[in-house]
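Per reviewer request, we include the raw input and output of the structure prediction for the construct analysed in the revised manuscript.
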Amino acid sequence: MATQRRYSIEFKRQVVQEYQAGETLHGLAKRHDISRNLVRIWAAKAEAGEFDDDLASASILQEYEARIGALERLVGKLALENEFLKGASRHVRPPTSATTSVIAGPVVSRSPKDAD
């Protein structure tokens, strides 16, 4: 059973460049001991940009950096809002005449109209 060989991206790029420069499929296949169909596949992949690892990595990295920047701005905004609300709550005094309960809330007095 034949084993599959793996070729580096640099080798594939080199073969595709030679093919695009005008080298024949037969000549390339014979010289590099690969099939003509493999050269065609590599040429199609090169045109589709699949051999541009650096370009794809840079694009993904740029997207991640933009997302991180947006999230950092959101965290900053929320931190400012939090500090503002903490400061505002320190200056507000609770009413001293009303008693409140966490469970029941403020004590409600009955109005004369409800007594009927």
